[in-house]
Each structure stands twice: as C-alpha cells, then as structure tokens.
Amino acid sequence: MTGVGHHDLVVLTFRDPLRGRDLRPGHLPSDLLWGALYAADVRLQGTPLPTDNPYRVSSAFPFVGGEWLLPKPRASAHQGTGDRGSEPSDKKAVKRLEFVNLSDFVTLSSGQRLSPERLQAAAARQRRALLPVSAETLPLTVTPEHLARSLRGTKHAGRSAQWAGEQYAAQEKDLTPTERLHLSREARGRSVTGQAERQRNTQDRITQSTTTFLTAQVMPPRLAFLLETSDEGQRTRLIAALRLLTDSGLGGMRTQGSGQFAFELQPLSTELKQRLGQGGPQVLLGLARPSADEAEQIDQAEQASYTLVRRDGFLDGTPLQRQDVWLLAEGSLVPAPLNGTLADVSPPGHPHPVWRSGLAVSLGVGG
C-alpha cells in the first residue's frame, strides 16, 4: 500500500440488527463499508470522489474494552500451533479463534505458537467481544449482586467471579451490565450470539397468493474499522457520509430501520500506527484485489498464504445482478504492501460504473 495517509478508527455501535446473507457476528466486509460510504457521499455531494486517489477502509472487527481485535492471520492455520509436540487441544483452540488482539496477531503471523495461558485468554477475549451490544442502555442495572442471584440453581452458583474470568477474561467488577446480563443468560443455556431468523411474507400482485420466507439477522457486537484518507477535504466528506449512514443504515432492509448505528472515532495505538506504515510481509485487514503485477509477486512468494472469496450480489433496489469478483480474504499473508484495485462490477450495458473495492489495507508483521 503506497502513500499511507491519515487513519481513523471508526467504532460502530448498532441500534438495530443487521440483515444480509453474508453477515456473521463480529465482521463487516470492507467492500460493503466502502460501497456504503461511496453511495452516501454521492447522495450528499452530488458527484463522487475521484477514484484515482481513493480512500480505503478495512473490514470491521470486534472492539471491546478499548481494544480492537484483528482477523486471525492465515499463517496460523498451519504454523500457529508450533512444534509437532503441540497438544491436539491447542490446535483446536487456535482453529476456533477468529479474532485476536494485536500482540497475538503478531505472534501468530510469525508462525510462533501461543502458550496455553495466552490461548485461553484469547478464547475468553473473543467470547466477550462477540456479545451483542446495543446503543440503547439497559432499562435495569445488572450489578454483581444481581448476577450472583441469577446464577442460583445453576452449576455456576457461588462462583460468578471465577466464571466471569473463564468466559470473558475479565474481573466480575469490570464487566458491563450488558455483559453480566449475557453471562446470566448463558448460565441458563440461552443464546447470546445475537443471530436470529425473522419470518416474513410476500404476496403475489396477480394471484394474491402468499409465500412465507425467513431472513437472517444479526445483532452485532461493537465493531471498528480503519478509515484511511489522503487529505483533510476527503476525510471531512467521508465523516459527513458516515453521519448520513447512521440513520440510513447498513446491510439489507434498511427502509425498515435495519442496520442503524452510532459511531465514534478512537485514537490508534502507537504500535498499530507503526505497523500500518511498515514494509515487508503484510497481513490483510480487508478484502483485496491485487493488480496483475501484485498477483504475480504473491504467486512467486514462498511464504504467501491466502484465501480467496467470491463476492457478488444485486444492485440496491433492482433485480440487476452485479458481476462477481474474487478477492483475497482478511488475514491473508502477502510478501509486501499491496495497493489493490477497484473493480467495475456493473451489469452489461449499465449507464455508469458500479465499483467494488479491492483496495488493500494491511499491517506489517515483520520484526
């Protein structure tokens, strides 16, 4: 990635569930975020920002306790459990990880193993980070005393403090009321994932027959993504576009209020800033579409490790289908910073380009 500009860490707290076929807890793909910002900016300004000096966004990942979690690096899939003497349970624990903090991210990127203690802490941190969080405050305050009473009659009775540490890698007194509420629900075997299906009906205009179908929805945890802008004017426009998106929403069924959120800007840690501008091996923080030269460099690199994902879909509010495109997935390990490219995925004969972002955002993992 050349010409690294200004970075903002944008933290999203959703007021309403997200809907869409490719959504999962703790993750919003970078091409969805980029496209939403692009469309909102055009609605506000009338003309799009130039694509010869584009802004970039990472995918959105969990943000918990003031810490941004990152996608587990691809290198860890075959190296992260260390030597051949690693316990099978360690390998399973690494496989179950989707998101890790910066320290574990760097360790796994270099092919080193996490100690059993760090693995346990990483699993608990991820579990806590994936709890659904609403922008609305709870109507009641869930105190440690309330939590202890709610655990009576369960196998966790009398050990609320210990169980909080096991599940969320935090002391009981440091849990938020929402986290205590979910802890009590989990003790009684109730879902805390935020995933659900909603029944909907559609009616044929001619025959008046009714068809019932289900739509997936996710009440996300708090998420954050990197917004990279090249100058203050571009940044000002995109912050305004973000404000418009808070009410218009993200994902599907936005006309019914789905996907609305609040946002705040958080500072980046010193190490995160340093690694954003670092050369050498990189781990992608968003979907990327390398240029022909960049793809050739990746193919020739012995240490490269990546996953390809297919992206398709329909133009908003129309039956027109976008052209599909293959992108490198988050967590892919590449030998050097990538620029990436934009792909015009407009249907044949469409009057204007429809862009899907494959512009790369990555962290250096050398050193």
Summarize the structure.
The protein is of the alpha+beta class. It has helices spanning 30-45, 76-79, 88-96, 102-109, 116-129, 144-150, 160-168, 177-187, 232-248, 270-276, 292-300; strands spanning 6-14, 18-19, 56-57, 61-64, 67-68, 70-71, 99-100, 195-203, 210-218, 223-229, 261-266, 282-284, 308-311, 325-328, 333-334, 340-344, 355-359, 362-364.
Q: Can you describe this structure?
A:
With 367 residues, this protein is an alpha+beta fold. Helices cover 30% and strands 22% of the residues. The chain folds into three domains: 6-68 and 221-271, 2-Layer Sandwich (Alpha-Beta Plaits), CATH 3.30.70; 77-127 and 137-187, no CATH class; 276-364, no CATH class. The protein has eleven helices and 18 strands. The strands form six sheets. Strands 1, 3, 4, 5, 10 and 11 form a six-stranded antiparallel beta sheet that branches. A three-stranded antiparallel beta sheet has the order 2-9-8, with no helix packed on it. Strands 15-12-18 form a three-stranded antiparallel beta sheet. A hairpin with a 6-residue loop joins strand 8 and strand 9 (210-218). Helix 1 (30-45) packs across helix 9 (232-248), helix 3 (88-96) runs parallel beside helix 5 (116-129) and helix 5 (116-129) crosses helix 7. The chain starts with 5 loop residues before the first strand and ends with a strand. The model is unreliable at 77-84 (pLDDT under 50).
